[in-house]
Amino acid sequence: MEKVRVGMIGLGARGMGLLTGIILHMDDVEVVAVCDLYEDRREKAASLVEEARGQRPFAAKQYQEVVALDNIDAVVIGASWADHIDIAVACMEAGIYVASEVGGAYSIQECWRLVETYERTKVPCMIMENCCYGRDEMMVLNMVKQGIFGDIVHCSGGYHHDLREEIAYGVENRHYRLQNYIHRNCENYPTHELGPIAQILGINHGNRMVSLVSMASKARGMHEYVLKKKGEDSALAHTEFMQGDIVTTMIKCAHGETITLTLDTTLPRYYSRGFNVRGTKGMYHEENQSIYLDGQHDAHHAEWNKQWGNVEEFREQYDHPVWKKYIAEGVKGGHGGMDWLVFSDFFNSVKNGTPTPLDVYDMASWMCISALSEESIALGGQPVAIPDFTNGKWMNR
């Protein structure tokens, strides 16, 4: 296959950004259909494709219209979180490769439906977790594989991202996040932090997550922000938000490792993914861009603050081969280049008819954390079992 014929489903901020910033710059991808419930979005997307490629794609309101086409090789799902799995299932049933943007699941049942559809159809479905392709995340993975940090004991990550403006103006911007923050209380966006950690710990490939506990703080940040920005007379000022400002989730793995995830999106703060790795021989700490190795840095305990920010010293030796090649050829696309890498991998899988590097088992096990954390929070922080979506295959995959 020389060119992949793609349908874009969901053309909000993320979907449109992928279309204009990544996909229309890939010579081996042809956009043959665009889809969104809102007419202005799909017409704008169709015009942008026509302007860039000289041919106007089919513009659909309902995703079923795209799935029914006979000239589609793959679909990119950028719709709302609640629609990801329904669309993915429909595509797999139709024999269409799936690239699904990230989010959290609403029930364990829908995660099982996703897996069972794949096992019946054998049509690949990839969760497009771009953070798995981050330069630091891949360098740390490379170091872990070489044993530099020893036996990995604990990892932590977070989605620390001030989203108050996006949520508060959800009605005006037609963004689905607002309704989730009004009605749900959970770790609603787990995969940015969990994806890279799952790669490091071999989740679904010799290891698995077995249980979690989750707790949420009170919800105050959004109410104060709405009062400040929209006033006491606004409709949203009288809305009670269910989503706690800080949600902490702890996960236990089959081989004894622990994971801590933190959702932190409704209080003022700087952006961070809080990616930290702790092993018997050292640690990586994202927020201060530091690596600490046993035997190499112990003499500097008293003056360690002066050593922080030393990650660049390890680049030449441990930068991942994918990134060395990428930098030599020229970094492209959004989010520091991660988007281009994840989509290149996906489209190469489609062209070659091969499995995707992040698969349906990853998608189900990472997304299920939302539904399970919601249950644990509702039960006062009780432990909840995490299903084995591989049905035992994780031991030998």
UniProtKB/TrEMBL annotation:
Pfam families: GFO_IDH_MocA, Glyco_hydro_109_C
Residues annotated as domain Gfo/Idh/MocA-like oxidoreductase N-terminal: 4-127
Gene3D superfamilies given in the database record: Dihydrodipicolinate Reductase, domain 2, NAD(P)-binding Rossmann-like Domain
SUPFAM superfamilies: NAD(P)-binding Rossmann-fold domains
Highest taxon above the source species: Bacteria
Keyword annotations from UniProtKB, A to Z: Glycosidase, Hydrolase, NAD
Any one GO MF annotation of this record: hydrolase activity, acting on glycosyl bonds
Names of the cofactor(s): NAD(+)
Name the record gives this protein: Glycosyl hydrolase
Organism: Paenibacillus selenitireducens
